[in-house]
Give the backbone structure.
Amino acid sequence: MVSGDRVAVAVRDGVADVRLNRPEKLNALDVPLFRALVATADALAADGSVRTVVLSGEGRGFCAGLDFAAFQAMSGDSAGSDVREELGRRLPGRSTNLAQQAVQGWAELPVPSIAAVHGVALGGGLQLALGADLRLVAPDAQLSVLEVRWGLVPDMTGTWVLPRLVGPDVAKELTWTGRMVGGEEAVRLGLATRVADDPRAAALELAARIAAASPEAVRAAKALLDRSTSGADRAGHYLAESAAMGALIGSPNQVEAVRAFFEKRPPSFGDAAPGS
């Protein structure tokens, strides 16, 4: 499992606890952190024992956005040309660049991902949280689509994801103003799933509950729910839904779920089958 000085990862009982690990910089995004996020998501996606992922930040905040040194590179300084090129270069075999994939990787995971947001989630930090399936936020968290301050746009998948969560008008208002949004308002707007006094503890508790369910059923449900919001046609979606159900019925973990319920005991599920 990928774990290093930028991202710390611990997997226990099917729950991957992933933490941004630059607390002295409020977990600001630099090139090594972008690389580590992509590598970590890829490694977790390939690990059949992982059933849920929690993404949080060490220290006083979730993520303050792009590192100040990287901002300086955006100013046109020739010394920053390598940084600009690496962040914007399309990754082999993908439609995303490095910065986009650092966010998209959490959406692409075959298992549920939960962002636990405390302190600040600004600019790229907010976009990173939006890459997760669910977001639990502290009441006093501060979220902002901050790119307009720097003469930029939210280009880490933000312009695609944001209007789908909050609606096009609210997305425009947040993007054009860069105003701060607290935890309670974030839930009302659709930026966050719910408020929690201790988001990481609440996210780990929720992740453990999800991880206790049949892994193929959870993965199939995520794939179908994501498909339903992707613009797929309804008839085709119903066929996909039927195919997923056909694959689940009679499978070992599905049989175990039924037996455990009637035998009044906790189920004992095996890892997800490859490609499920």
About this structure: The chain has two domains: 7-211, 215-262. The chain has twelve helices and nine strands.
